[in-house]
Write a structure and sequence with these properties.
The chain is mainly α. Helices cover about 50% and strands about 10% of the residues. Helix 1 crosses helix 10. It is elongated, with a radius of gyration of 32 Å. Bound molecules: glutamic acid. The site of glutamic acid has 7 residues, from loops. The site of glutamic acid (GLU) has 7 residues, from loops.
Length: about 500
């Protein structure tokens, strides 16, 4: 009978969760989904030296944020748990000893000094480093005596000296390794802890994993895993190695050259839809060339054979473009809710919001999302709607020509007689407006009426108005601005600037 497809991610809780974990999880989820299978989460925390407090919870939180859900895992349990390797320690030693009994593995009593020595000698002779098989030929009596004397030991896998190990990778074809070049891998360490290789294989087997879809950096471990499956006499899963995410110089994606923490993307206002779409595109293209898609569409139409191995370069500009598309597609109310913490971080709104504030934010978000790349950018660019006290920018020596020109136009505008007249006329119109809220159409009309009554070109009238209403040569539409900030604040801005610049 065909086995039910089961895939997994198996991150180690060693710090801020990595974008690579989400990328690999996403492909595992899609593969399980199209095959009516299941996707599980396992925490590989056997390496206590690299363990960091709280990082397991961050893995749950960031994957949940992205909607990358698992059917079984340490937090929700499942039929083949526990799903956290530190809770499975008893299991691994037994399996390692089982291999010793079968003659597939052996006790190795070599001291760290002997191994250091060996390494030095290999180095001097320009030979590849590796264990020399010293303890492979110990007799039964020798082993028993050492065990009885309490000598520390590790358990090593007996790699065949001859022949080849072949990975039949679904995407890459056959990858062939000469057995003589593969070390006798340590399975159980002197402290009784399993190595990654042993724990990973035992757990994939016991958890019924049928397809191991992981990054290409694990290819060199896979022949050791295949030999382990053989040694146990277990059916091996299918191995599929996904292309690594890369920096623009094509090295493996790294902190120094790119943000790699999922929390960074969350904290900087990327939408989960944008980040997932981007990660999906890293190694996959839709047949019709579609670039913007949802996780659901990705899962529903996924075909593992369409994964491309090109070595995708992580490009934040592209991510920004994709995120912008998703911000524009998203329901405005929902997007605004997501943007609120970013407005709060700027101090533009408080802990709790009035209905009026909420609807103003919606209008601000609607305008700025057209061109912003992140929620954070939306908040960063919204200052003009919140800050009522400003001055005109100073002219400085190092300014480029265009910038200088823009600012000069502001100063000229408010010193010019027509400019002054326009500002005062507009002030009268706002004062006469009957309600605090200014409708958008009315805001437009107040501006165009001012223009008409002054009877000059728009630059002569609108530039000085822009100067006093925003302090900036470009940016927000004045009518949107006025209607968003309302009558009282518009008046306050006008009066303050009139006094400040003797208009
Ligand atoms: N614990 C490994 C990691 O941190 C798992 C690798 C694998 O998928 O086998 O990615």
């Amino acid at each position: 009978m065909e086995r039910k497809v089961r895939t997994r991610v198996a991150p180690s809780p060693t710090g801020d969760p990595h974008v690579g974990t989400a990328y690999i999880a996403m492909f595992n989820i899609a593969f399980a989904h199209v095959n009516n299978g299941e996707f599980i989460l396992r925490i590989e925390d056997t390496d206590q030296n690299r363990y960091t407090e709280g990082s397991e919870q961050m893995i749950f939180d960031t994957l949940n944020w992205l909607g990358l859900n698992w059917a079984e895992g340490p937090d929700i349990g499942g039929p083949v748990g526990p799903y956290r390797q530190s809770e499975r320690f008893g299991i691994y030693g037994d399996y390692a000893r089982q291999l010793v009994e079968k003659g597939e593995a052996y006790y190795c009593f070599c001291t760290p000094e002997r191994l250091d020595n060996l390494r030095e000698r290999q180095k001097a002779m320009k030979k590849a480093p590796g264990y020399d098989g010293h303890c492979r030929s110990l007799t039964k009596e020798e082993i028993e005596a050492k065990l009885a004397a309490g000598e520390p030991y590790v358990i090593r896998l007996k790699m065949p000296y001859e022949g080849e190990t072949v990975i039949h990778d679904r995407l890459r074809g056959d990858i062939v390794f000469e057995n003589s070049k593969i070390d006798d891998q340590v399975l159980l360490k002197a402290d009784g802890f399993p190595t990654y290789h042993l724990a990973n294989v035992v757990d994939d087997h016991l958890m019924g994993i049928t397809h191991v879809i992981r990054a290409e950096e694990w290819i060199s471990s896979t022949p050791k895993h295949i030999q382990l499956y053989k040694a146990f006499g277990w059916e091996q899963p299918e191995f599929i190695h996904m292309p690594l995410l890369r920096n623009s110089d094509r090295t493996k994606i790294s902190k120094r050259k790119n943000p790699v923490s999922l929390n960074w993307y969350k904290d900087n206002g990327y939408l989960k839809e944008g980040l997932l779409n981007f990660l999906g595109l890293m190694a996959y293209s839709f047949k019709d060339g579609k670039e913007i898609f949802s996780l659901q569409e990705f899962k529903d139409t996924f075909n593992i054979d369409n994964v491309s191995l090109g070595g995708p370069v992580f490009d934040l500009v592209k991510l920004g473009w994709i995120n912008n598309q998703h911000m524009r597609l998203k329901d405005l109310k929902e997007l605004t809710e997501l943007a609120i913490p970013f407005f709060q971080a700027k101090g533009y709104v408080g802990e709790t919001l009035t209905d009026h504030e909420r609807s103003s934010l919606e209008r601000i978000v609607e305008i700025i999302r057209e061109h912003a790349h992140t929620l954070k950018e939306i908040a960063d660019e919204s200052e003009v709607y919140f800050k009522d006290e400003y001055t005109l920018p100073e002219l400085t020596e190092d300014m480029d020509k265009k910038e200088r020109k823009g600012i000069e136009r502001l100063y000229n505008g408010i010193q010019d007689e027509i400019g002054k007249k326009s500002i005062k006329l507009f002030l009268e119109k706002i004062e006469a407006y009957p309600t605090e809220d200014i409708l958008l159409d009315d805001a437009k009309k107040l501006l165009t009426d001012t223009l008409e009554e002054i009877g000059e070109g728009p630059g002569k009238v609108y530039m000085p108005l822009r100067a006093v209403l925003t302090g900036q040569p470009k940016g927000a539409d004045l009518y949107n601005l006025i209607s968003i900030i309302g009558k009282a604040r518009t008046l306050a801005r006008l009066k303050r600037m009139i006094a400040l610049y003797n208009i």
